[in-house]
């Protein structure tokens, strides 16, 4: 009986962490999408630089490998 109570309590304890991770991944995906729209022209070349690379590196640095990769996969799938 005590084991069942522990399982249900632990399930509720992990819910805020899940929501926090989901929110951080969603915000990072939006940050990458917005940064991809900022174009900086480079003189002497026809290819502009975007801030998307900076957003990808920042996402990986702040969220870590797993959550950062997941945010970029969502960017690829939905944008």
Rounded mean pLDDT is 87
- Helix/strand-derived category reads mainly alpha
**Gyration radius, to the nearest Å?**
19 Å
N/C terminus separation = 48 Å
Can you give the helix content as a percent range? over 70%
What would you note in describing this structure?
The model has no long low-confidence stretch (mean pLDDT 87). Helix 1 packs across helix 2 (52-78). The longest helix is centred in the N-terminal third of the chain and has 35 residues, at 2-36. By secondary structure, this protein is mainly alpha-helical. It is elongated. The protein is built from two helices and two strands; from the N terminus they run αββα.
What attributes does this structure have?
mainly alpha, elongated, 2 strands, two-stranded antiparallel ribbon, 79 residues, single chain, 2 helices
How is the secondary structure organized here?
Blueprint: H1 2-36, E1 39-40, E2 49-50, H2 52-78
Antiparallel strand pairs: 1-2
Summed up, what is this model?
The protein has 79 residues and is mostly helical. It is 78% helix and 5% strand.
